[in-house]
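Long-time lurker, first post. I've been practising inverse folding by hand and with some scripts of my own, and I keep getting stuck on stretches where the structure tokens seem ambiguous. Below is the full token string for one chain I'm working on. Before anyone asks, I'm not after the true native sequence, just a reasonable design that respects the backbone. If someone could post their per-position residues I'd love to compare against what I wrote down in my notebook.
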């Protein structure tokens, strides 16, 4: 499906045709990161085995508390793309405080990464396995995208066969053992290439949700069209521990051409608790939906958590406004009462005319959506505005064209961009694009026995940029202390200056700690996304896989991480109103904003500057439902970037505008 990115560079829009493609030494770590009585994180202190063999953390200079954090390196990888959207199940809290973790690894940077596979480490409640300089894979064949679980007294890992399709199941001899045995690929299909699996189990019941490669490369297995859906999401089920699969590549009820046109890799998540199986899926041109089974996957019922009013999407459609949609990155967790809680990154889509190439989505959006069976309304529980990502006033962009550009605020740049550097010289640099997701992306959720829910996500941060002036990402976290009824302010968990932390994954079970892993790098973005896989640009030690045990007590009392103002909950329901970009933009005198009101409402239009100061406020009483035009007068404003916010009593939408004289 052909899609475009709607991008902003210092307030100016740049558009890109972008197909959402089928998704492409170390010292021994001793002990847990923290113990319950440790009051603060401390800066990482470690000696290198050899020069450049260990990443040294730097003190943070970001907003919030001044404490810098220490994390544990448990492995590394030259292959640095851990997911295209949803992160999956990659870390487990086991009995007696033991922890297992997996990731996609490659122990060398040979072109094509022929040694790609599953990296593994284990914490026995005293220490992790010593991390080798270059983490080898578990399997003997090229795999990727592993899921991790336990069945009886052993652990299992399932990753996809990247060449032929299907999934390789590896099992160790006992929990924590380094001795692994891999099976032949299962769930293979003739002339098809199922990959990107997400697997979870309850004992011998194994559940796999997957997708297909839809690359048109010569000689590559193509994706099928099933029930009118190209490259659909499918479900498979085993009742004998993943040895045989009685259900293979089935389409879930309601997943057909009445609501879907095509599927996409990594745009789904799964959780299993006892006999309950929950699968969630979403993308920018489809519903955010949940399928729930209470009989170990024998039957499923579908619930649409957030409706996309233009399903099934067609290129000839025209949208009203810019509806909020899922960016394709989701997670789901089941609480002890059996209720499902779902989370996803949010973006906007626009479709202004019937031409096939006029569909745009905005990666500059940064909202985290939440829905649960306890309170079945979509809410925004975190926003990028709580972690300001201000454009760098010293960064100027020049030489832009339809193939070379930079975007707001240097965070996404899939191709090369010509930058005017602070010293006046120019350089062609790579920006930091991380696949086709929003700024706030890849939520991962865990829960403790008290009903506290903890959700990590990835977000770029202001004031921390690389040599290309692209913002580094941190792992943030938002939490609820009442099983999702209300949510506290989000915090910056990693907070390490001069490095990027991304692809965070939280263990589903939380004890006195939230256990998570993430990938750390000293440059923004990924080599595969930003540098066309040029292995010569990969550092000697690749990327680092880090582990953190974040004390729950510190999260609950607000004494850890960077804390920001809590946002009011926003309901993304049929009552929401949608605001288009003001036109013209940039402008010097007058501009207009088109809005759509589902019901009669009092409307306020507020103009603020880059410092958040309110410049002017206009009130419109009892505006009728339907389309309305609000007028903005810029005669009193100087050249620069401003924001306008359209509000009703229940909702608000903010957009950026530019005055140019």
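-- Answer (accepted) --
I ran through it position by position. Result:
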């Amino acid at each position: 499906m052909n899609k475009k990115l709607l991008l902003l560079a210092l307030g100016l829009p740049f558009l890109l045709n972008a197909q959402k493609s089928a998704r492409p030494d170390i010292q021994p770590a001793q002990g847990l990161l923290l113990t319950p009585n440790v009051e603060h994180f401390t800066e990482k202190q470690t000696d290198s085995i050899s020069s450049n063999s260990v990443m040294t953390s730097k003190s943070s200079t970001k907003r919030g508390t001044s404490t810098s954090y220490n994390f544990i390196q448990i492995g590394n990888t030259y292959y640095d793309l851990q997911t295209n959207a949803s992160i999956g199940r990659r870390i487990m809290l086991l009995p007696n405080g033991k922890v297992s973790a997996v990731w996609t690894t490659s122990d060398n940077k040979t072109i094509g990464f022929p040694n790609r596979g599953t990296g593994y480490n284990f914490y026995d409640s005293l220490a992790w396995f010593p991390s080798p300089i270059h983490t080898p894979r578990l399997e003997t064949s090229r795999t990727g995208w592993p899921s991790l679980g336990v069945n009886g007294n052993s652990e299992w890992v399932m990753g996809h066969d990247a060449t032929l399709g299907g999934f390789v199941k590896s099992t160790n001899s006992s929990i924590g053992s380094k001795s692994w045995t891999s099976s032949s690929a299962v769930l293979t299909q003739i002339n098809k290439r199922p990959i990107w699996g997400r697997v979870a189990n309850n004992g011998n019941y194994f559940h796999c949700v997957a997708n297909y490669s839809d690359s048109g490369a010569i000689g590559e297995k193509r994706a099928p069209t099933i029930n009118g859906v190209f490259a659909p999401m499918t479900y498979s089920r085993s009742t004998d521990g993943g040895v045989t699969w009685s259900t293979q590549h089935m389409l879930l009820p309601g997943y057909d051409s009445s609501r879907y046109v095509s599927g996409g890799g990594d745009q789904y998540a799964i959780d299993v608790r006892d006999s309950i199986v929950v699968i969630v899926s979403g993308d920018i041109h489809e519903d955010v939906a949940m399928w729930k089974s209470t009989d170990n996957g024998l039957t499923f019922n579908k619930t649409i958590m957030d409706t996309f009013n233009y399903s099934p999407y067609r290129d000839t459609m025209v949208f009203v406004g810019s509806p909020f949609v899922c960016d394709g990155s989701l997670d789901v967790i089941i609480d002890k009462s059996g209720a499902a809680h779902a989370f996803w990154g949010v973006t906007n889509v626009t479709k202004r005319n019937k031409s096939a190439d006029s569909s745009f989505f905005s990666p500059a959006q940064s909202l985290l959506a939440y829905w649960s069976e306890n309170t079945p309304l979509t809410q925004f529980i975190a926003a990028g505005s709580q972690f300001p990502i201000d454009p760098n006033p010293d960064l100027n962009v020049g030489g832009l064209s339809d193939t070379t550009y930079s975007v707001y605020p240097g965070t996404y740049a899939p191709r090369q961009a010509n930058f005017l550097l602070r010293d006046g010289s120019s350089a062609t640099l790579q920006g930091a694009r991380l696949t086709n997701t929003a700024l706030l992306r890849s939520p991962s959720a865990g829960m403790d026995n008290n009903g506290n829910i903890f959700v990590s996500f990835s977000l770029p941060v202001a004031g921390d940029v690389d040599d290309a002036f692209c913002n580094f990402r941190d792992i943030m976290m938002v939490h609820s202390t009442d099983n999702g009824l209300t949510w506290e302010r989000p915090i910056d968990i990693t907070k390490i200056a001069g490095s990027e932390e991304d692809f965070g994954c939280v263990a589903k079970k939380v004890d006195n700690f939230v256990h998570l892993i993430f990938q750390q790098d000293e440059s923004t973005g990924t080599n595969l996304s930003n540098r066309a896989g040029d292995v010569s640009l990969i550092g000697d030690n690749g990327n680092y896989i880090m582990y953190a045990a974040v004390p729950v007590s510190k999260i609950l009392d607000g004494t850890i991480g960077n804390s920001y103002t809590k946002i009011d909950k926003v309901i993304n329901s049929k009552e929401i109103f949608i605001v288009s970009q003001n036109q013209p933009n940039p402008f010097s005198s007058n501009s207009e904003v088109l809005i759509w009101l589902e019901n009669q409402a009092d409307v306020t239009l507020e103009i603020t500057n880059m410092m958040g100061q309110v410049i002017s406020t206009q009130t419109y009483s009892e505006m009728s439902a339907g389309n309305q035009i609000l007028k903005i007068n810029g005669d009193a404003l100087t050249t620069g970037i401003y924001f306008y916010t359209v509000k009703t009593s229940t909702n608000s939408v903010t957009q950026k505008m530019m005055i140019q004289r």
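A couple of notes from the structure itself: The first strand starts at residue 2 and ends at 9. The CA atoms of residues 258 and 312 lie 6 Å apart. Happy to go over any region you disagree with.
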